[in-house]
Amino acid sequence: MAGSVLTGAQPWQQVLALIVAATVVMGSPGPSTISVTAVGAAFGLRSSLSYASGLVLGTIAVLVVVAAGIVGMLASMPGLAKALTILSVSYILYLAFKIATAPPLAEGGRQAARPTFTGGFMLAVANPKAYVAIAAVFAGAASQAEPLGVSTRLLVLAAMIVAIHVVWLLAGTAFARFLRHPLASRIINLAFAAMLVLTTLLAMPR
Question: Is 155 helix (H, G, I), strand (E, B) or coil?
Answer without folding.
Answer: helix
